[in-house]
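Z., the sequence and structure:
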Amino acid sequence: MNVFIRAALLLSVSYLALPVPGIAGDPERPEEREWNFRVFLDNQEIGYHNFELINEEGRQRVVTEAEFRVKFLFFTAYRYEHVNEETWEGDCLKEIESRTDDNGRRFAVRGLQQQDRFALDASKASVGLPDCIKTFAYWNPAILEESSLLNSQTGELLPVSVDVVADEVLEVRGEQVPATRYRLLAKNLELDIWYSNDLEWIALESTVRDGRKLRYELT
């Protein structure tokens, strides 16, 4: 349970390049956008995961906040808190700062673009990464084109593979929405992500190790 949630929130070396345009730098996008999700474990609501995107003079600032509580009888069996702020220019990450409390295990990640590399300080281990990287930024469908993504909780750059599963129709906010389901595979993670026909992120789902479903419902 703990291992999966850590991977799913950040978030096979095979890789399918998909013709999906990036959306982060589109000048026609409004100044602010939000994605607010209720999070369920099977039919039990366990918390929320919210994203806010603000366009600022050619850059995008994305603020993410998540909080989970899994209860058993009258006790909290598992808790998770994650706060992350990222700055993007086009489809490249320029700066990141995150803090995570994973059921008592604490993580901190700080990173900044420096000339030809991305300098990262992740929980006492400093590393240098290529100059243009992406996190598991589900709000930006350009991640579907990547062969590796940065785990914003641990600072790991993880190999990923992406494939198209099917065209489907999902119920979103009480309406039937045509969508495409993609499957993203990474370390300890098999994740389904749905995008509408205009490439809006609308749903996420995966199976935890005990067979239960973790599901995001857009509000």
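Residues 32 and 129 are 29 Å apart (CA to CA). The helical segments are 2-10.

Let me know what you think.
H.
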